[in-house]
Structure formats: C-alpha cells, structure tokens
Amino acid sequence: MSRQHTFSGFSIVSCGTLRPELRALEEEGFLDADRVLFTAPGLHEWPGELERQLGRQVEKVKESSERVIVVYGAKCFIDSSDSLRDVDALIRDHGPNISRIHAANCVDMLVGAEERQAIAGGRNVYWLTPGWLRHWRYIFRDWDVGKANETFPQNDKAILLDGVRFFEEYTQEHPDEVLAFSDWMKIPIEPHPVSLDRLRGLLLEQLERSA
Q1: What secondary structure letter does DSSP report for 40?
Q2: Are residues 101 and 201 in the same domain?
Q3: What pLDDT, on a 0 to 100 scale, did the predictor assign at position 1?
C-alpha cells in the first residue's frame, strides 16, 4: 500500500454486492479502514429495508471512526413517496462526517460509462458484477417470469465486470448456478476482466475531500 494515504480514522459501509472487490482491496493493503461493514446485496429492490440496514450499519461504524464512507450509488435508493429523498438524504439523517463515493451504482464503481460503451461495442448489455452472480437468487427473489422477460431478453448478453478473477473459479465450482441464471435471464453471460483502479480512485477521492 502506498504510504501516501491511509483510511485510518475512516470506516466503510457498503452494499453487499461489492464485498468481493472491497475485500480484495483490504487484502492487497490498499484499504486499511477501521471497519468495513456490509448491508445485504441488492437492497435497491426493497427501499425500506435498504434504509433500515444502511442506517444500522452506519450507526455501528460511527462507534469506531470519526468519518464514514458509504459505498452506495446515487441510483440505488428511490423513495416512491418522496422523489426528493435519495440515498444522500438517508446519509444526512445520520449526522456529519459521512460521505458517499460519487458513482451511479455498483457497476459504475468498477467501470465508467465511456468505458462500458467501448466494452459493449454497440451491443445491448445487461451489466453484472461478481456479487450479482453470487446472490442472484436473493436479489431477484420477488421477480416473476413476466418481469424477467420484460427486462433481460431485450439485451444481447450479460457482461460480468470481473475485477477479482471471480468468474472462472465460480463457473468451475458452481456451473449449474451460472447456467440457471443465464437460462432465467434468457441471455448468455460472459466475463470481462477489469481493474479495481476506478474503485480505488473513488475511495481516495473521499480522503481528499475530507482533507
């Protein structure tokens, strides 16, 4: 880890879909936060539960750190009864010294829009991360066949942005799960290797803002 930065004094609260990537950053020594806690993955499907779990985890880490970085995207929470109440409003409810990385969602945290366009190469793509594949049965548990058919087959394929060398190992250990997810979506899944540089940069940006 570069000695030019440290996350000491900070804790992280993240959506569980980013657990593989954040754990990888911890293991390589980049992320030395006081604590890293996660909500359940895919809670954008259940806004009330997202609000409850995010608030609970933020309050927990505030006991350990002066500052908190929330790893949630701007589009991950929608309050159907109040369009002005977004994820940043949820964070403000828990006091000062809490910031959120600047990205739209977990896919955008790994690869920006311009690079995704280049990867897609003109095709319609449904974007995935390792956490989505690992937890797809949980994330989509309330979806019926009709909603799935309206959402996925309009895409040519699903591309999994793999920054942790996940896909090859997972397909060897759980080939039936990969096939089941692909069959349910009615589109093929293919991996695309990426670096974690964008996620590193988004986290470092919050250090700079705090400084």
Answers
A1: P
A2: yes
A3: 41
